[in-house]
UniProtKB/TrEMBL annotation:
It comes from the Bacteria. This is Acyl-CoA oxidase/dehydrogenase middle domain-containing protein. Keywords: Oxidoreductase. One of its GO terms (biological process) is fatty acid beta-oxidation using acyl-CoA dehydrogenase. InterPro entries: Acyl-CoA_dehydrogenase, Acyl-CoA_Oxase/DH_mid-dom, Acyl-CoA_Oxase/DH_mid-dom_sf, AcylCoA_DH/ox_N_sf, AcylCoA_DH/oxidase_NM_dom_sf. It comes from Lentzea aerocolonigenes (Lechevalieria aerocolonigenes). The keyword Oxidoreductase applies. It holds the Pfam family Acyl-CoA_dh_M. GO terms for molecular function: acyl-CoA dehydrogenase activity; flavin adenine dinucleotide binding. One of its GO terms (cellular component) is cytoplasm. The keyword Cytoplasm does not apply. Residues 135-201 form the Acyl-CoA oxidase/dehydrogenase middle domain.
Length: 201
């Protein structure tokens, strides 16, 4: 086990507990639950370490998926209040930035909240079971400002669209099972779609 200051539990002790009066003045956060999540994460990291010495690539991606799947089996954070979910993301990110959306749905919350019934049916159970969702919004010319999106769709036959454009800094590029892709619809509206990571193109 790493030194207490670099563990998920250490993140609570070192950073969050001293700020508790500011972060949670009304005492609404279940700090015991947050500690349990942190302990589960520390155990998962012992089984599947992803420290800075492990470079990006297939093995790191495999371990990140295993950590998420372990946590999905052991603790469900999707119904937690928003502030508790944010604190959980901080605790995970404190251990490694790649772990910041290890709990809950991560970018998959966009699918849960705004996806079509078909998209929700296809993806939500998989995300709850541990699959990861990535997001593709940033473009070379405009950064992460969705209003400047140039990627666009052209209507095809049978109600299909063909999407063309360039994205950079795509999150979870090598781990995601699904990507939330932002682009312009044929009528110019800014929209998003859930794209299967295994689809060609």
């Amino acid at each position: 086990m790493p030194d207490g200051g670099t563990t998920a539990a250490g993140a609570i002790t070192t950073w969050l507990r001293p700020l508790q009066p500011v972060l949670d003045p009304g005492g609404r956060i279940d700090w015991t639950r947050l500690t349990v999540v942190a302990e589960r994460l520390d155990h998962a990291l012992m089984r599947h370490p992803v420290g800075p010495d492990l470079p990006a690539g297939a093995e790191r991606s495999r371990r990140l998926r295993l950590i998420r799947q372990d946590l999905a089996r052991e603790v469900d954070t999707t119904a937690d209040p928003d502030l508790l979910q944010v604190l959980t993301q901080f605790v995970c990110g404190y251990c490694d930035i790649d772990l910041r959306d290890t709990t809950g749905l991560g970018h998959g919350r966009l699918i849960a909240r705004h996806g079509s019934p078909q998209a929700r049916q296809r993806w939500i159970l998989r995300l709850l079971a541990g699959d990861l969702a990535g997001i593709a919004v940033t473009e070379p010319h405009g950064g992460s400002r969705p209003a400047e999106t140039h990627t666009c769709a052209v209507a095809g036959s049978g109600g299909t669209w063909t999407v063309t454009g360039r994205k950079t800094w795509i999150s979870r590029l090598t781990e995601a099972a699904v990507f939330v892709l932002f682009f312009r619809a044929p009528d110019g509206r800014l929209v998003a779609a859930a794209i299967d990571a295994n689809e060609p193109g």
